[in-house]
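Progress note, sequence design subtask.
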């Protein structure tokens, strides 16, 4: 698959509205204005005497019967934001945006408890709590978001980042499974979101819904983007016109995936620690969705591959049992590694046949005779080590001078809830 490398947009993006596709052609006002706004709202370097906890703030009751949310703009004066903006206006806009977002989240998932948003921080600088490559980040009962992310989210993505991060607030643990669940919410709104975040979805979609998806991905990412502007390439790709027929077809297949997306949500809520561990141990971002497909979808007949089943399962089992990612800090996608070995050692050139073996392997490994999922962890000691490292990481974050008291209390609550 000749897919261009992506910087997957962190903490985004439900694609519910867009600028007209014609705005991408040449030097147009739409793209140019977006470029100008992002340029003047890039993360700044803290100046001498800068205090990340000082700035205008406002407490707002967003939903009935929930605690008020503290909205703040640290460094508003020190970083020069007051030269162009009124703090009260920005705080009111953020509060209104989040009120609508939380109401929207509740309408989509009425069974979830209200998102515990106790703090919303507009952060104009980069640091350990909001990295330069992050547009937004959920910490503990809090959301931190950059001004550039607000611009793109409100002007292009229909406040998708806000919805994505709000769902994170309701999740009980950390890890890739959380992103998969949140992106599952996103793809229901626009198929381009699935394309932009294809590692989470492509194998299941290719195996069961659209075998031609790899070709669609190649064509989508083959389109040139501008490198001389501040608009992220993901945003440019989204704004470019693309084959509407293909997008409509993909949208229809996403609708058929609804039971699988629901199963991902159920598994992540039922097995939050196991799902987080397996996500890090295997580095397979799509793992929960793949397991859901192995459980709910009719698996392809192996046919002539039945004789190769035992060897293929042994290869995949070996990869899925490796602990290098958790013990040595590697970042190897064990699913990709296993499928590559099937290609070159077993000479299985057809990607659909490799995927067929993979999904049969998942069913054998994770689905019991009663049809229920058991998120099998092969090494309990490594699981304990993984959880302890997450606890250490949380404690380290709590020592940051930029960590607020609200975040600190939220982190303590998570530590108490983590065995």
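Output:
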């Amino acid at each position: 698959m000749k897919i261009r490398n992506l910087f997957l947009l962190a903490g985004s993006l439900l694609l519910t509205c867009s600028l007209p596709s014609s705005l991408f052609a040449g030097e147009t006002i739409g793209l140019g204005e977006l470029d100008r706004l992002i340029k003047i709202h890039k993360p700044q370097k803290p100046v001498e005497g800068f205090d990340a906890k000082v700035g205008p703030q406002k407490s707002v009751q967003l939903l009935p019967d929930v605690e008020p949310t503290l909205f703040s703009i640290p460094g508003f004066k020190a970083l020069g934001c007051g030269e162009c903006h009124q703090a009260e206006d920005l705080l009111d806009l953020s509060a209104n945006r989040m009120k609508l977002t939380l109401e929207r989240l509740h309408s989509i998932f009425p069974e979830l408890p209200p998102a515990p948003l106790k703090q919303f921080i507009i952060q104009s600088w980069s640091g350990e709590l909001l990295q330069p490559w992050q547009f937004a980040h959920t910490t503990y009962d809090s959301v931190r978001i950059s001004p550039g992310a607000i611009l793109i989210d409100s002007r292009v993505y229909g406040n998708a980042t806000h919805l994505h991060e709000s769902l994170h607030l309701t999740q009980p643990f950390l890890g890739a499974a959380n992103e998969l669940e949140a992106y599952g919410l996103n793809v229901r709104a626009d198929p381009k979101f699935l394309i932009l975040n294809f590692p989470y979805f492509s194998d299941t979609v290719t195996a069961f819904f659209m075998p031609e998806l790899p070709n669609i991905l190649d064509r989508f990412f083959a389109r040139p983007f501008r490198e001389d502007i501040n608009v992220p390439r993901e945003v440019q790709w989204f704004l470019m016109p693309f084959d509407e027929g293909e997008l409509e077809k993909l949208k229809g297949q996403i609708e058929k995936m609804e039971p699988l997306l629901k199963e991902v949500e159920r598994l992540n809520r039922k097995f939050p620690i196991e799902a987080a561990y397996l996500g890090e141990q295997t580095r397979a971002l799509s793992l929960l969705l793949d397991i859901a497909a192995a459980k709910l979808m009719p698996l392809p007949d192996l046919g002539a591959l039945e004789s190769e089943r035992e060897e293929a399962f042994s290869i995949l089992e070996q990869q899925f049992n490796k602990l290098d990612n958790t013990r040595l800090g590697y970042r190897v996608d064990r699913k990709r590694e296993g499928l590559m070995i099937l290609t070159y050692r077993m000479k299985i050139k057809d990607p659909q046949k490799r995927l067929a073996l993979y999904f049969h392997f998942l069913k054998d490994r994770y689905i019991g005779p009663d049809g229920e999922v058991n998120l099998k962890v092969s090494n309990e000691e490594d699981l304990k080590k993984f959880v302890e490292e997450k606890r250490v990481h949380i404690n380290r974050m709590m020592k940051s001078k930029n960590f607020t008291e609200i975040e600190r209390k939220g982190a303590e609550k998570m530590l108490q809830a983590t065995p």
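The longest helix spans residues 87-108. Work on this subtask will continue into the next period as scheduled.
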